[in-house]
Design goal:
This protein is of the alpha/beta class. The protein has helices at about 30-40, 55-70, 105-115, 135-140, 175-185, 200-210, 240-255, 270-280, 315-325, 340-350, 380-390, 400-405, 410-415; strands at about 10-15, 20-25, 45-50, 70-75, 80-85, 115-120, 145-150, 155, 165, 190-195, 215, 220-225, 230-235, 255-260, 280-285, 290-295, 300, 305, 325-335, 355, 360-365, 375, 395-400, 420-425. Strands 17, 18, 19, 20 and 21 form a 5-stranded mixed β-sheet that branches. The chain has a 4-stranded mixed β-sheet with strand order 22-23-1-24, with helices on one face. β22 (about 375), α11 and β23 form a beta-alpha-beta unit. α1 (about 30-40) packs parallel to α6 (about 200-210) and α4 runs parallel beside α5. The protein binds uridine-diphosphate-2(N-acetylglucosaminyl) butyric acid (EPU).
Length: about 425
């Protein structure tokens, strides 16, 4: 192999068992941001300015796609961007960035809504088992669109979009938001029954309403959208990221002496907080922050992931690591992404006693964890390995950290501030 063929990659190295202390501030919600950015192109007049944008690579990928569409994106400050779609042109989205994240599918709803036509590649994202988008497409069809798929690309178009009653077989976050975006310019009224109720959906509906849309019922299982002729620019601040917050709360329960997680909406984290209390985690909830203090021993609990307000699938992987430190056997059942268990293989490598039996796993604890070379196979797997690295004896090397960087804003920087010994290294 020639020297120039050697490809370097960046890994996280963590020396575990340094107790964490202090405060951490949570960034804006990734899963809201990745929908708000495509939603901004629905403005026919004026820029949409979004505050609280996390510094994550998913935002970079979406910005590349906006540039493809001739939409100007200006990062005005560390955490706010201005999106000007007034000179937009609707071209096929076949840029590689489409395959970098699942949420590129929001351009389907947004471009279909705005131009009645969209051509784009199959969206990518973390592999969590099959992730169909049939409900999104059925929703577009119900509004009058035709969907064609050929050679890895979608072509979706309509002469006219007309409001319809749409029942979602599964309360899908993505389908709910995508249909909402496609329906804002449809003629008449659209109703989405069995809509997903995640806080990110309320955030997107709030921004679209500021732009002039008429969306009612977001956050309930029945959303009504009355079509309008034109949306305009607005200012919007993103809600805090409940999954980043949950990850730091779990980190605190695993590795902190005393740690405060700030800029959160505790109501969005109720299912996690009540599970942690059941485990005997010492947690104090305030209006917009929680404080976690070290507990001498933790109890095993059973967890079942469910749509909001149930236990979030995105926190299943990080909490699995915490459960390796609890006394007894914890049963985890995954009902959203039944194959989301790759992190267990990596945790086993570090000493965890986990039996995977898809769609669940049993975690027998407590077991000490030991630093090893592990792989962030997907975003939240990466988070679970960071939790593991912080409590493990010795040094943990986490590769494929680009998955972590897709969704966590400055994770290593925030952890360093709390006293963790985490650093980046370039390795072959
Ligand atoms: N589903 C279908 N057909 C569809 C759409 C969904 O069968 O057309 C199924 C999915 O396979 C899954 C379930 O419905 O079993 C729920 O999926 P949903 O559509 O709600 O998920 P999503 O919108 O693709 C978002 C988040 C995920 C998060 C899930 C569940 C974004 C960009 N992604 O995905 O976040 O796990 O909701 O809450 O918002 C992450 O942040 O790590 C992540 C994967």
């Amino acid at each position: 192999m020639k020297i120039e063929d050697v490809k370097m990659k960046t890994v996280f190295k963590i020396e575990g068992r340094h107790p964490l202390n202090g405060k951490v501030r949570i960034s804006g919600s990734k899963n809201a941001t990745v929908a708000l950015i495509p939603a901004a192109i629905l403005s026919k007049t004026g820029s949409v300015t979004i505050y609280g944008v996390p510094d994550i690579s998913d935002v970079e990928s979406l910005s590349l796609l906006l540039n493809e569409l001739n939409v100007t994106v200006i990062r005005k400050d560390a955490d706010h961007i201005s999106i000007d779609p007034t000179k937009m042109r609707n071209i096929p989205l076949d840029h590689n960035a489409v395959t970098k994240l699942r949420a590129s599918y929001y351009f389907m709803g947004a471009l279909l809504g705005r131009y009645k036509e969209v051509r784009m590649r199959m969206p990518g994202g973390c592999y969590l088992g099959p992730r169909p988008i049939d409900l999104h497409l059925k929703g577009f069809e119900a509004l009058g669109a035709t969907v064609e798929y050929s050679q890895g690309s979608y072509h979706i178009w309509a002469d006219e979009l007309v409001g319809a009653s749409i029942y979602l077989d599964i309360a899908s976050v993505g389908a709910t938001i995508n249909i909402m975006m496609a329906a804002v310019y449809a003629k008449g009224r659209t109703t989405i029954e069995n809509a997903a109720k995640e806080p990110e959906i309320i955030d997107v509906a709030t921004m679209l309403n500021k732009m002039g849309a008429k969306i009612r019922g977001a956050g309930t299982n029945m959303i009504t959208i009355d079509g309008v002729d034109s949306l305009e620019g607005c200012f919007h601040e993103i809600i805090p990221d409940r999954i980043e917050a949950g990850t730091f709360i779990i980190i605190a329960a695993a590795a902190a002496e005393a740690m405060t997680v700030e800029n959160i909406i505790p109501q969005h984290l109720e299912s996690l907080i009540s599970k942690l209390k059941e485990m005997d985690v010492n947690i104090e909830v305030d209006i917009d922050k929680v404080t976690i203090k070290h507990s001498d021993s933790l109890k095993a609990v059973d967890i079942q992931t469910l749509p909001y307000p149930g236990f979030a699938t995105d926190l299943q992987q990080p909490i699995t690591t915490l459960l390796t430190q609890a006394y007894g056997t914890s049963q985890v059942k995954e009902t959203i992404y039944t194959e989301r268990f790759k992190h267990c293989i990596e945790l086993q490598r570090m000493g965890a006693d986990i039996q995977v039996n898809v769609p669940g796993c049993a975690i027998i604890g407590p077991t000490p964890l030991y630093g090893d070379e592990v792989k962030a196979t997907d975003l939240r797997c990466g988070a679970s390995l960071v939790v593991a690295g912080l409590i493990a004896e010795g040094i943990t090397t986490i590769s494929d950290i680009e998955h972590i960087e897709r969704g966590y804003d400055n994770l290593d920087g925030k952890l360093k501030e709390l006293g963790a010994n985490i650093w980046r290294e370039e390795i072959e």
